# Entry
Amino acid sequence: MQPLRYDLQIIASWIAPGSRVLGLGCGEGDLLLWLKQHRQVIERGIELKESRVVKCIEKGISVLQGDINTEITDYPDQAFDYAICSQTLQQVYDPVSLIQSMLRVAGKCVVSFPNFGHLRIRSQLMVTGCAPVTRELPYEWYNTPNIRVLSLKDFENFARQAGFTILKKAAINTKNHQMEGKIVTFLPNLLATYGIFLIGHQ
Amino acid sequence: MSEYIGHDQNGATVGIVEKQFFTFAGPDDPFALESGASLGPVTLAYETCGTLNPDRSNAVLVLHALSGDSHVAGYYRADDAKPGWWDIMVGPGKGIDTNKYFVICSNILGSCIGSTGPGAIDPATEKPYGTNFPLITIGDMVRAQKILVDHLGINKLLAVVGGSIGGMQVLEWCVRYPDRVASAVALATTCRHSALAIAFNEVARQAIMADPNWRAGHYYDGPKPGMGLAIARMIGHITYLSDESMRTKFGRRLQNKSALSFEFGADFQVESYLQYQGNKFIERFDANSFLYITKAADYFDLAREHGSGSLVKAFSKTAARFLVVSYTSDWLYPTYQSKELVTAMKKNNLDVSFCEIEAQWGHDAFLLPNEKLDLLMAGFLRSISYAAAAV
# Structure
């Protein structure tokens, strides 16, 4: 089995063994498979793309093909210990209701996203005057799926407004196709490429 | 379901299989049906492939659709023109790998390919039942299969697998016998027919009953209602395809001619295809069985039968792991019907996987070679058998 991507390693380290985990936009199921094999979690995934759903089921992961915003609504309250939305929040049309749904079905939620406050993004906009294109956000303005641009600081402000608690956070900087990385503690909103948050009810 | 089977391109096969028969319920202890009527004796034709493991934990029950039979894979004789109806899925190294699993498939109650149906001899009259045969339900089919599974000494099925009407039996198995099923694969199916599906079935039945040879169902001593059955089959075939697949397969191409004939013969390829399918079907299928099985499918309503109208309540009775698969171009059992199942399962916290496979071949897609379905099936069954081994 391939080693986990660096950001997923951090998320995995936050998940208690044997818990029930819902992966929103779970891709090919790498994180869920790792958690199933190493943390004995009970896993469920939701993924939109048919080919990725096939990959998940091939691996023995339980996954539903569908839209995370609608599929999450069918689960009973607190059906999970954790709901994970990894690097997808910036593509969600209505992040408030998604996070509310996540907190309804799970006690704790993990949310991660690329940091739009990173130095490279700020300086690109400053110097070139054009919408930034980076390794983490590699699209042009006209074809990007990342319709919500937010920084680590934005998310922290959002937590206060939306009324949930940030239980844990990790600002990270990754390299080598995100396989390696390090925690950023100095000026995270300026120097981290990704933010990962563990959130819960207030 | 249509017939598509050709020989396996890679030559993988379960080899020679034998049709077997199991008879239960004598005149003294008849098999009670859901309608209130009873039936006896009841014979089920069945076949098995692969090997049952010592702890009897690797049995997979495959459930066939309207026109299928117990001949799921392999050959009766080395020179058979065709293998069993799901030979692409069942065999060594295939989606349902007979090197790992013991596969059972029985002809459904009411059918005509070895199991007791309206063409069987009524012990009371010593003549074929005809329409004196009682109406049967999907539940009756499953209850008969359960007696067969008991007879084979299998306490818990690793999986029940089926598409279309076979998928209805899958759902029925899980809810009716929750302790006997570890997992279930429901392909291109529904928990109840839509009005559209019932409508097509009714037109097909009317075609049979309008055939002068049908004679209220008592035709076994004379000519068969072949014309009616052929039309019924033609109607069925239209519902198994899709606009796209018919456009690709036939378009408006003419059959063996370069210009319109200005007669009522088959001008278009699609006409010729339907006539061929209809005529082929009457050689192997009994018109009364078609009536009984389609009626059973129309009556099927999992929520009404097992949940007082609530599908969520119906699925609260099972703990099986599910794989639900639909096909983008299936308009007979469209994706929304599979999603209805999935939603009810989710509300019960059941372990369910769902995939909508992109395929242009309409309802019939589940019978056609599809690498994705092979991968889904193999991966799902593998994860079930690991979980079963870990317990």
